[in-house]
């Protein structure tokens, strides 16, 4: 069955003619709840600005493993993944190339310190967010804030009922 589908879409022919299948690059980003806010890193490399910790998923690595690794590399924090939040795939979300990111919500533990390709790492609240946020991370943070507000309202209604 799988062979028939591959043959139908020309997968075998593509391999034989050395044409590569092109797909977006896969990344993870992590909304780390820590110290009364969320963690952002100031990027060392272009594009400039503040961003959620995250990066590319390595071959042989799960999304969850990539999120834990990237958080540790960029913030020095150990994280506990709470939930998979959302996927973002708009082709222009990264000015360098087309990426698809899977965003996780996590709780951070340890001493916050920017490392790897992070110049520094800091905690921000909705009211103290920096002006320059890289990629589409401003939208991701806005979606998260809306999600938290709706979630809190729903939980409050359950408690009152």
Structure description:
The chain is α+β, with helices and mostly antiparallel strands. It has one domain: Nucleoside Triphosphate Pyrophosphohydrolase, CATH 3.90.79. The protein is 31% helix and 32% strand. The protein is built from four helices and seven strands, in the order H-H-E-E-E-E-H-E-E-E-H. Strands 1, 2, 3, 4, 5, 6 and 7 form a seven-stranded mixed beta sheet that branches. A hairpin with a 2-residue loop joins strand 1 and strand 2 (37-43). The longest helix is centred in the C-terminal third of the chain and has 24 residues, at 137-160. The chain is globular. The termini are far apart. Residues 1-6 and 155-161 have low confidence and may be disordered.
Order of helices and strands: HHEEEEHEEEH
Beta strand %: 25-35%
Q: How many extended strands?
A: 7
> Which architecture would the CATH scheme give at its second level?
Alpha-Beta Complex
List the helices and strands and how they pair.
Layout: H1 2-8, H2 11-16, E1 25-34, E2 37-43, E3 50-51, E4 54-56, H3 63-75, E5 78-88, E6 99-109, E7 118-124, H4 137-160
């Amino acid at each position: 069955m799988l062979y028939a589908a591959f043959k139908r879409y020309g997968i075998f022919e593509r391999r034989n003619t050395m044409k590569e299948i092109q797909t977006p690059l896969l990344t993870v980003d992590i909304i780390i709840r820590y110290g009364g806010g969320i963690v952002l890193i100031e990027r060392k490399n272009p594009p400039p600005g503040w961003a959620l910790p995250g990066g590319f998923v390595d071959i042989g690595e799960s999304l969850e493993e990539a999120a834990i690794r990237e958080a540790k590399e960029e913030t020095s924090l150990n994280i506990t993944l709470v939930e998979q939040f959302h996927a973002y795939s708009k082709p222009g979300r990264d000015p360098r190339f087309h990426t698809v990111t899977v965003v996780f919500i996590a709780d951070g533990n340890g001493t916050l310190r920017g490392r790897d390709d992070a110049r520094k790492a800091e905690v921000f609240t909705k009211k103290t967010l920096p002006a320059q946020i890289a990629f589409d991370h401003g939208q991701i943070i806005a979606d998260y804030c809306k999600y938290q507000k709706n979630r809190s309202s729903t939980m409050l209604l359950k408690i009152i009922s």
